[in-house]
Structure formats: structure tokens, C-alpha cells
Amino acid sequence: MTDSAITWLDQAIDQAFTERISDIHLEYVEDGPLLNVRVRKSGDLIDWPTIGGPEARAVISRIKSQAGVGSGTVRKPEEGRYVHRINSGTIDPAMEQDAYDEHVKTFPRSELRLVVLPTIRGEKHVLRLPSISRTPKIVELGFSSHNLQLVAKLFGVANGLVLFAGPVGAGKTTSMYSALEYLGGPGKAVYSVEDPVERALENVDQMEVNDDAKNSFASILRSLRRSDLQVLMIGEIRDQETAYSAIQISIAGARVVSSIHANDSVAAVEAMLALSGANAQQVMQSLRGVISQRLVKRVHVACGARGCDECGGTGVDGRVAIHEVLPITQEFSEAVADGASRYALNVIAKNSGMTSLRDDAQRHLDSGETTPRWIAEALGNE
Description:
This protein is 35% helix and 26% strand. It is an alpha/beta fold. It has two domains: 4-128, Beta-Lactamase (2-Layer Sandwich), CATH 3.30.450.90; 138-379, Rossmann fold, CATH 3.40.50. The strands form two sheets. It has a seven-stranded mixed sheet, sandwiched between helices. A six-stranded antiparallel sheet has the order 3-2-1-6-5-4. The radius of gyration is 23 Å and the shape is globular.
């Protein structure tokens, strides 16, 4: 028979893909032993049944061995990749292990990113699932008609940098992938630098950061600045050299998209100025616009958000995106160079067509797609 730990992992990960779960949290408690399981779905962590006894230990051992993480108790954070074969959970558990090992190779391969964290209770394992769905088109990202027109203008210029802003889990990577497909194509030299690569894209030369091999964002970008590129995605701007490279590559003639952690679009411009170390004129010369976004829970229509068996009692049916699109105008650029306050910059941005995140969320509230509580979860209370 196939080892029960393998069967549990195969079935659990298959279920996670089916239910559009982004992360699986496994908390291993040696005193028991117990394996507490939670999954992130539509932004919330939801409890799954706990595993106890020898199987709990076997599941953790299986994950660590497959992901190349040491078999002993971890003393510091560790990272690895767990290979899952999609739909392998359908294999009959009664199949002999040797037969399973051969049969499972015929299923599509998918890599889950693993982080192992030592805690005072035991080891915490977090498996991040890659997306296996197709990349949505720009028009499918949920932009209002007004914001979609602004986005088309941002991407209609010959060169320059467009930033996607928001916290972790706001859907920035999916939006950037959509932008790459919109800007690229088989006749163009399109590159991405990511940590990690979350989805394979056609007609894009994707490169993955590997700090252990001294293959950082900065080192890859130094080489790309000398290559014949037309469109570039930088997974995240996180340090001065990466920020400065994005500016230089975009000024040199490429179209560049990247992400930055900021609460809104004006704050993203300020963050880029502070992080890059470049002067305001250089930053504003490169920057074409900022797209801030959040994901807000969507009402499950069948139960009206009250909770039912179909939605697992959550009242939620996925999430909808809200956006704030800031086009960089000459007036805005001059105000930045003059050291204008954030309030003044927001006034100029709104006069140039920017709709705030909260105002964009209001249209989903008016249509009954979401609730005031869920908007507050995403944006906070005023």
C-alpha cells in the first residue's frame, strides 16, 4: 500500500488547488505529536482537520525530505521546493508503493514553495501553491471602465516604468503577468526577474533570484541593462540598486513593470524616491504611473453572505479587485520635484483622473458584491 502520509499530502494539495487556496499552514507540535492544519482561502486562514500520532510526524518527514530540508529539527528558518503531481490524490491508496512511484510520474508536475520556521511550539511549515489557472487579460482584472482607460494610456507609451503597489496578497503578481502579456508577444524581447517564478509564461524569458548562488535581483538587472530587451518585469523593488536599475532601464527605452509595498499610489511614488536614491527628476522621468490594488471578499450570492454548505459557512465567493490608477502628469512631476506635501499630491492626482481605492470599492458595495465590513478589512476604517 502507498504510505498514508503520501496519500494525505496528495489529496490535501489537490483539494487546495481545487478550492483556490493560496497557502497551506502546517503547525507540527512534537508533544502529541499533532499536526494542526490551516489553509488560506479568500484572504482568511481556515481550519482543516488535525492529524495526530505517527502520521503527523510522517507527513512532516515526507515534506522535508522531498523539499531538501534537513531531516532533523530545524534551528533556523529553512526554504525549499516541494514537488506535487497534480491529481495524484486520485491514485488508489491500495496501490503498492513501487507501482505508485512509477505511476505518479505520469501526472503534471507542480512546485510548491516551502518555508519552515522554528517556533516555541514546534516547526511551522508553510506551503505556497503556484497558480495553475491561465493568466487573465488586462480587461479581466476588474478595472472600472474609467481606470481601464487610464491603464491603457500608461501602457500605451513607448517606454517607462509602471509600478503596482499594495501589501502582500493584493494580487500584484497576477496583474503584472497580465501586463507582460499585454505589452509583450512573440515578436518582442520580454524578460522577467522574480523571487520566485510563480507561473510559467509563454514568450517570456523568466529568471529566478537565487541569493545562495549570488544571483540577486541587482546582479541579474546589471546584466539585463546591457541586453537587447524591450519589456521587463521586476518582481519586487526592495532595495536601492534594484530601484535605480528599474529607473535606468526604463529611461533607456524599455517598458518596465514592477511592484512596491505602499499603501496607495502617492505613497508608492514617495517610496520609490526614498528607496532609489535618485533625484526627483530622474524618478519622474522614468515613471509613467502607479496602479494600487487590493482584493476584497465577494458575497456568495446563494446565501447572501450568511454562510452555507456551498461556501463552507464563510459567505464568501472569492474576491474582487479594487484599484487606484495614478497617471504621472507634468503638474504632478513638478509638484514632486518642488517637495509638495502628500495631501497636495493627492489633490493633483485626483484632478488628473485618479479614483481612490475607497471610492473604487464603493462601486462594488453599491452593486451588492461586497460588504462594508469586508471593505474595512482591506482598507481599514476611516
